[in-house]
C-alpha cells in the first residue's frame, strides 16, 4: 500500500498539463463548519428565561423611574433660586437620575441580547453588492405603487401643506429657547452688557485680588473677574454676572500685537484681555498656548489668535472673542476702560 502511494505521488509531481488545457486546482483550505451550538441556561430552563425577561423589563422600568426622578429633582431644587444648596443638589440628583436611567437601559439591552435573543449561528452567503435587475425593478415598483395609493405625488395641496407643517413644527422648540433667559427682564440687555465699567479693577478669579500690571509676566495667562464681583453672594447674581464677565488676561511683546486702528489704546504694554466665553456656544476658552499665542476652546476646538484681535483661525466659532479695553490706574493696577463694545458669547438673533 505504501509503495502504491509513493508511485501515485511521483506521478502527480511529474505530470504537466498540455498547452491550452484548463486545470482545476482543489481549494487547499477546508471549511471547518460551525462549532457545536452550546445552549444557554435560558434555552434549557424556562424558569431561567422568565427570570431573565423579568430582569430586563425591571431594568427598563427602573430607567423610566430614574428619568422621572431627574425631572422631579430639577423642579425640587431650582437652580434659578441662586441658592448654593439648590445648585449643588440640582446637579447631584439630576445627574444621578440621568446616569442611572442610561445605565439601566444599557445593562438591560445587553442582558436582552445575551440571554433572551436567539443566538443560533448561521452562515450568510456572500453576494454581489449590486442587486439583481429584477430586485431593483421590484423595489422601484414598490415606491411607485405606494405613491399611487397614497396620492402623495398627485395631491399637491396635501403634500405642500405637510411640508409646511413639518417646517413649522420646529418653531415652538426654537421659541422655547427664549425661556432660558429671565422672563422679568429684557434678555437682549442682559446679554449685551456685563459688570465691567470704566475704572473697575481686574481681579484674580476667584479670590478677587486686584492685579498689578507689573505682576503679569511675558507668556503668562490670568483668569480674571471684575473686582466688585467677588463681593457678590450667590443670591445676588454672582454666577449670572460671572458667566458674562469672565476674562482671560495675557501678556505678549508689544511689537507682536497687531490691533485694529480703533483699538490701538485698548492694551497696556503688551497686556491684552479677551472674553473667555466662546463665540460658538459659550464654552470657557481657557487653554492658552504661549508660543503660538493661540487660545483654544476645549469643547469644539475653536482657536483664536491673541496677537491678531483674537481672530478665529480654526473651528466652528463665527467671530473673534470680544476684547475688553484696559489700562492702569495711578497705583499700577489694571483697570477696564469700559464694558465690552459688543455682546459676549454666542451670537443671538437680536444681536446687531
UniProtKB/TrEMBL annotation:
Residues 269-335 form the Rieske domain. The chain crosses the membrane at residues 56-77, 89-110, 162-181. It is a multi-pass membrane protein. Pfam families: QcrA_N, Rieske. Signal peptide: none annotated. The keyword S-adenosyl-L-methionine does not apply. Keywords: 2Fe-2S, Cell membrane, Disulfide bond, Electron transport, Iron, Iron-sulfur, Membrane, Metal-binding, Oxidoreductase, Respiratory chain, Transmembrane, Transmembrane helix, Transport. It comes from the Bacteria. It is found in: Cell membrane. Iron-sulfur subunit of the cytochrome bc1 complex, an essential component of the respiratory electron transport chain required for ATP synthesis. The bc1 complex catalyzes the oxidation of menaquinol and the reduction of cytochrome c in the respiratory chain. The bc1 complex operates through a Q-cycle mechanism that couples electron transfer to generation of the proton gradient that drives ATP synthesis. Belongs to the Rieske iron-sulfur protein family. This is Cytochrome bc1 complex Rieske iron-sulfur subunit.
